[in-house]
């Protein structure tokens, strides 16, 4: 370029090479092959965990209005979904039941039934598709008539009694074939109690994925519709879920759960808490997971349905964001759709 060109004059008399010291960062972005060569983070099918919703019956599919494309399925169809997931290469499923209202009570006692919906589904899936992992939640909220994650006494969620019941439920879930127990109740001491109970029951090889930092979030609404608790909840869950404003407290929660025997950590929700994911990964360097919760899923689906965003690209970008933040895996309702794209 002529040293007296108008462009050079417009940028203060220096050329772009003089400004950048000849470090042109666009060089490796110029072609698809070079962009792929220097890509720092990669999303794989191996990173995906598929949460599915269960309902009683045979050959039942119930669309969830607030989660377009997601359904509750009966156990026979859950087995078929597990087979589909395995063919796609998805490593694991996480199961969540919609329990009949007649089986719900103040203490969520039906979670202690070895033949409840979760346990029957686990047995059926592991028998038909033994190579796929099954992750179960020992929290009480699908089983209580008030929608809370613990036992309600005089308007208070009682910690220690809840922990005892959650630990007993975890053993039953392990006996049914669960590979990982992922308790989402956020009671103090639950991880240690579950580890002790599993070990005493002969389930030393069953792992624990701790919902170490589950925040009192507005993003859970569609999930509560899916499991049938949205109309039941009295009050809120702020006495046991984390304050969204607190990062240091999240660190303490994760540290405590690891000390009690957690094998891996989860952050829930996901996208609003990428900073928490990165902090925990840097601090502890243990297997780290995020739950891309129902509200996150529904926002992307709704915006795509209205033509405001490219839904497929937004889905993949959001999942890659979890990897960049430090996740080893992601629980996402997009798992089958993403898996198809990743294996195409």
Descriptive overview:
Belongs to the ALAD family. One of its GO terms (molecular function) is zinc ion binding. Helix 4 crosses helix 5 (117-128), helix 6 (159-176) packs across helix 7 (190-200) and helix 11 runs antiparallel to helix 12 (311-325). The chain is globular. The strands form 2 sheets. An 8-stranded parallel barrel has the order 1-4-5-8-9-10-11-12, surrounded by 9 helices. Strands 6-7 form a two-stranded antiparallel sheet. 40% of the residues lie in helices and 15% in strands. The protein has helices at 6-10, 16-20, 32-37, 75-88, 117-128, 159-176, 190-200, 221-227, 248-260, 274-284, 294-305, 311-325, 335-343, and strands at 48-54, 61-63, 71-73, 92-97, 133-136, 151-153, 156-158, 180-181, 207-214, 264-268, 288-292, 329-332. The longest helix is centred in the middle third of the chain and has 18 residues, at 159-176. Helix 10 links the parallel strand 10 (264-268) and strand 11. The mean pLDDT is 95.
